[in-house]
Amino acid sequence: MPSNSQPRVAYFCMEYALQSNFKMYAGGLGILAGDYLKGAKDHKFPIVGIGIKWKQGYTDQRISPEGKAIDTYPIYNYPFLKDTGVTVSVTIRKREVKCKVWLCDKFGNAPLYLLDTDIPGNEDNWITGQLYGWFGEERIAQEMVLGIGGVKALRALKIPVDVYHFNEGHALFAGFELVREQMKRGKSFEEALRASRQQIVFTTHTPVVQGNESHYLDRLMYMGADNGSFSKQQLKQLGGSPFNMTVGALRLSRKANAVAQLHAKTANKMWQGVKGRAEIIGITNAIHVPTWVDKRILRAADGMSGEIWKWHQENKKNLLTFIYERTGVRLKQNSLLIGFSRRAVPYKRSDFIFSDRSKVDRLFKTGKLQIVFSGKAHPLDDGGKQIVGNIVALTKRYPDSVVFIENYDMTVGSMLVRGSDVWLNNPRRPQEASGTSGMKAAMNGVLNLSILDGWWPEACVHGVNGWQIGNGYENRDEKKLDAHDQKSLYKVLLEEVLPTYYDDKKKWVEMMKQSVLTTHKPFAVKRMLQEYYTKLYTD
Ligand SMILES: *Cc1c(COP(=O)(O)O)cnc(C)c1O
User: Which H/E stretch holds residue 250?
Assistant: First the structure.
């Protein structure tokens, strides 16, 4: 590292959300990575990103007339990508796979290098086809391109790197390439491992065990993921059997972080049995404010009351128009509107607000309460698609007050976090790692109504800048947990949120201001980058 200067960082991630129609992302992981690269550019941190140029992106998910989620995969062209002239090769299943390297610097982001196997002469040109499209061998091939190909691309581009940051376990094979390089220079395996570890940091994301990918050792060997440096036994020592990518990354990094303070506790508990792993500290996620937040709201937050309300009403009106264009439903400007958009997975409990319908049936029927949903299910997840189906069925039961917007993406997201009145989040604690959509909402004066999970315990002052549902209750018994949380949700919704909205506008507006004022600095990406530098990269 040059003295007196900051470490130069290469950040590896499977997905980047930089702009709505640049389909290199699926969800929250990509949103974080995209906002991180924009922050790096704004605040002049020496960071480059490494990713994959997805030919078809993640699914374009539409709802059929029968209410089923249908996946389509259009092919996109991105004429703004710059050809670096560099091609690297990765050996996968004993075949040479050529990866072309593109540069994206169009969205106010630090340089992002994207690897692409869809080039003439490549037998395996499908590897960079669909983001999270497959599991097993195909997923390993994608991760080899990202990791091994990514390090080779950095060398070919002559970009000096002091720290390799793996955002999620997907990038782990980059570490294997570092080990191979060290061994080629004459180090023993153990020495190479130690030297590589000194340069690697890792961000872990999901506190849900099944969300942490693993692969059979034989399959890794067959694919060539060992990269000519690891024996099967050595792979097992690193990641166990089957080989867990998160465990491998925790053992191959010098330091690791979780994405909120509560998540750090959960993650340390979750991986306490893993010997020889990196310490996991908490560095709470943050957002790129210019991308997600209405400047007028920020300005109005310490100005006169009328202002923030006026701009919010305009944002709400825009959202209602957007909803009308997408769904044909006209929601009411003067009725409370709840926004809810999440991946359709069970622990997020998407239709929880309907779990005791007797409590809310009249409110939805009379239009005193309105809700807009969005969110995709993974294309191969029938359970997730069932969740989407349930919500679509609710839109038919309450056609004037419940809507679902198909094909959740950055456009839908930014409309919802600006124009809703309340942002609802009711995951089963402690399974939400962070939840950046709540930060976007909070800074737009949209009041969070949330379980104390992810980032929210760090920000919530109940009744002042939003509301907490319950008091941090946890129970492994899902039935008991759900029953408990259900009561808490209805209590705060019916006794605090609705009365404040309809009967105490002055307090509501004051809460909107507090929401903005208490979140807009601590959850802006600059703070996160500074913490990465002081706690992860240089420490
Ligand atoms: C912000 C955002 C996310 C991440 O939000 P969570 O709170 O983690 O669910 C995911 N997808 C889109 C399109 C977003 O804008």
Answer: helix 245-251
pLDDT digits (tens, 9 = 90+) for 135-183: 889 999 999 999 999 999 999 999 999 999 999 999 999 999 999 999 9
pLDDT above 90 as % of the chain: 94
Buried-exposed string 299-331: b where 16+ CB fall within 10 A, e elsewhere: ebbeeeeebbbebbeebbeebbebbeebbebeb
Which atom of ligand 1 lies nearest, measured to the CA of 410?
13
Report the nearest-CA residue for atom 4 of ligand 1.
28
Q: Edge-to-edge strands of the sheet including 402-405?
A: 402-405, 369-374, 336-341, 422-425, 447-451, 466-469
C-alpha 139 to ligand 1 mean position (Å): 23
The residue with tokens 């990509």 is: 30
Question: What does R_g of the chain's alpha carbons equal in angstroms?
Answer: 23
Nearest atom (ligand 1) to Cα of 414: 15
Whether 9-52+132-287+527-537 shares its CATH topology with 289-523 is answered: yes
- The answer to whether 49 touches 33, Cβ cutoff 8 Å, is yes
Q: How confident is the model at residue 2 (pLDDT cuts 50, 70, 90)?
A: low
**Are the C-beta atoms of 89 and 117 separated by less than 8 Å?**
no
Q: Flag whether the pTM goes above 0.85.
A: yes
From the CA of 525, how far away is ligand 1's center (Å)? 15
Domain chopping of the chain, boundaries: 9-52+132-287+527-537, 289-523
Buried b (16+ CB within 10 A) or exposed e, 192-218: bbebbbebbbbbbbbbeeeebbbbebe
How far does the centroid of ligand 1 lie from the alpha carbon of residue 171, in Å?
21
Ligand 1 centroid – CA 202 distance (Å): 21
Nearest protein CA to atom 6 of ligand 1, as residue:
435
Contact between 214 and 243 under an 8 Å Cβ cutoff? The reply is yes
CA of 417 to the centre of ligand 1 (A): 10
Our answer on whether the CB atom of 27 is closer than 6 Å to any ligand 1 atom is yes
Q: What is the fold of 9-52+132-287+527-537?
A: Rossmann fold (3.40.50)
- DSSP for 154-208? HHHTT---SEEEEESGGGTHHHHHHHHHHHHTT--HHHHHHHHHTTEEEE----S
Distance CA 185, CA 360 (A): 67
Q: Which fold has domain 289-523?
A: Rossmann fold (3.40.50)
> Which residue's structure tokens are 């359970």?
383
Ligand 1 within 6 A of CB of 30: no
> Each residue of 24-50: pLDDT tens digit?
999 999 999 999 999 999 999 999 999
Residue 194, amino acid: R
The ligand 1 atom at the shortest distance from the C-alpha of residue 440 is: 1
CA–centroid distance, residue 409 to ligand 1 (Å): 8
Q: Which residue has the tokens 């976007």?
A: 440
Q: Whose CA is nearest to atom 8 of ligand 1?
A: 435
